[in-house]
Amino acid sequence: MSISASFNPNDFQRLIENHGYNAYWSKAIVCECLENGQPDMHCEYCQGKGWRYLPREHVKLVSTSFTGKQELIVPGLKEPGTVYVTPEIEIIMGYYDKIEFYEIDARHSQVIKMGIEETTATFRPINDLNFVLAGDYVYTETVDFIVTADKHHLKWINPETKPKKGTKISILYLTSPEYLVVDMNHELRSTRVSKGTVNPYTAKMPNQYQLRRIDFVYGHTVNAKREEIKIAESEGLSYD
Ligand SMILES: [Zn+2]
Question: CA neighbours within 13 Å on the CB side: how many for 195?
Answer without folding.
Answer: 6
